[in-house]
């Protein structure tokens, strides 16, 4: 009888221990994915970088999905795990800690190991923007508008395009930036749109006072801390809007080559003609990522050009991001992420 009692006691204790262990594992907040490795394996280009409130780094690729680095290992999410698409356009976090991933074919919200997908096109597109709310904005295809999430629904807002426009113009969103007044600046290939909460204003070829041979092909926009609007183009360099003044910043600084076609052809060294990324660091420097000539820093007086890594086949920068430690990270077209160390660049991921 003593032996039977001992066996029963041990069995019950082991059962309780096993239940407690299972419950603890179930409640772990860690991300779950099917593939893990200790180095970032993307080779198609880093289009988006974001550090969340827990300190995790999120990397969005050109066509391989998204990866999350928790300080020890990388985890990968693709359409196999529930993403809308493997081409990542943006990554952001809402006030509840949920991650929002904009892709080329919809928006994916990640929360507690689960993806919820939202279509970027709806059967009821909206022209009256002021009747919608929300701080989350997303790319919505290559045609007419942008998406705004109101906490429940994804609203498809139509851009007020100019009349008699060029039928070849495309209004796919290539960049979004919010200024210090709360206005949203939206870059599209053919124009910049500004929304102040009440009305939408367009800045197109005519409004920006461009020459006949200067074609807009906008790839990035930044509203900086001083209220200036920087517009990065693929072909005619950087446009700068400051108050009522609009200038071609690249041209003013002699960074457009005299033989440039301004049509997207490969640039000569020492030029700033194809700007796919713009960021402001904590010291107020403005950084440009050029397709052909690497990184450029503008400190308010002088411009400095940096080559990221001479071993790379291309110096194209697709994304620039300053993390919580004020480290400046550069996402490259070949897949790596580099950190600026004050003089040169170290491969970080």
Got a strand count? 28
Number of helices in the DSSP assignment:
2
- The portion of residues forming beta strands comes to 35-45%
The spatial strand order of the largest sheet comes to 1-5-4-3-2
The whole-number mean of residue pLDDT values reads 88
Shape descriptor reads globular
Approximately how much helix is present in the residues?
A: under 10%
Secondary structure category: mainly beta
Q: Helices and strands, in N-to-C order?
A: HEEEEEEEEEEEEEEEEEEEEHEEEEEEEE
Spatial gap, N to C terminus: 63 Å
Major beta sheet summary? 5 strands, antiparallel
Uncertain ranges:
1-35
Radius of gyration: 24 Å
Describe the structure.
By secondary structure, the chain is mostly beta strands. The protein contains two helices and 28 strands. The chain has helices at residues 2-26, 249-252, and strands spanning 36-37, 46-51, 57-61, 66-69, 74-77, 88-93, 99-103, 106-111, 114-118, 136-139, 145-149, 154-158, 173-178, 184-188, 192-195, 200-203, 218-223, 229-233, 238-242, 245-248, 275-280, 286-290, 294-298, 303-306, 317-322, 328-332, 337-340, 345-347. The strands form seven sheets. Strands 1-5-4-3-2 form a five-stranded antiparallel sheet, with no helix packed on it. A four-stranded antiparallel sheet has the order 6-7-8-9, with no helix packed on it. The radius of gyration is 24 Å and the shape is globular. The termini are far apart. Residues 1-35 have low confidence and may be disordered.
Summarize this entry quickly.
The chain is built from 2 helices and 28 strands. By secondary structure, the protein is mainly beta.
């Amino acid at each position: 009888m003593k032996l039977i009692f001992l066996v029963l006691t041990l069995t019950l204790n082991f059962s309780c221990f096993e239940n407690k262990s299972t419950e603890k594992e179930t409640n772990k907040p860690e991300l779950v994915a099917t593939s893990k490795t200790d180095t970032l394996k993307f080779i198609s280009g880093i289009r988006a970088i974001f550090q969340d409130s827990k300190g995790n780094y999120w990397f969005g690729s050109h066509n391989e999905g998204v990866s999350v680095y928790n300080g020890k290992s990388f985890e990968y999410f693709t359409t196999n795990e529930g993403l809308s698409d493997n081409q990542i356009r943006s990554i952001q976090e809402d006030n509840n800690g949920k991650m929002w991933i904009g892709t080329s074919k919809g928006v994916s919200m990640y929360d507690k190991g689960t993806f919820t997908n939202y279509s970027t096109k709806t059967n009821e597109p909206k022209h009256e923007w002021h009747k919608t709310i929300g701080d989350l904005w997303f790319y919505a295809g290559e045609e007419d508008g942008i998406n705004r999430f109101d906490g429940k629904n994804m609203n498809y807002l139509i851009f007020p395009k100019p009349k008699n426009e060029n039928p070849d113009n495309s209004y796919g969103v290539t960049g979004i930036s919010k200024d210090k007044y709360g206005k949203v600046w939206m870059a599209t290939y053919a124009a910049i749109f500004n929304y102040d909460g009440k009305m939408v204003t367009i800045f197109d070829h005519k409004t920006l006072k461009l020459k006949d041979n200067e074609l807009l092909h906008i790839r990035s926009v930044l509203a900086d801390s001083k209220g200036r609007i920087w517009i990065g183009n693929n072909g005619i360099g950087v446009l700068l809007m400051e108050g009522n003044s609009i200038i071609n910043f690249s041209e003013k600084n002699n960074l457009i080559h005299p033989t440039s076609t301004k049509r997207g052809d490969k640039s000569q060294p020492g030029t700033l003609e194809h700007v796919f990324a713009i960021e402001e660091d904590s010291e107020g420097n403005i950084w440009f990522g050029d397709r052909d000539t690497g990184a450029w820093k503008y400190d308010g007086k002088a411009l400095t050009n940096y080559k990221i890594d001479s071993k790379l086949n291309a110096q194209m920068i697709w994304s620039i991001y300053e993390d919580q430690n004020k480290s400046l990270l550069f996402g490259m077209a070949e897949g790596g992420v580099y950190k600026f160390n004050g003089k040169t660049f170290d491969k970080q991921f």
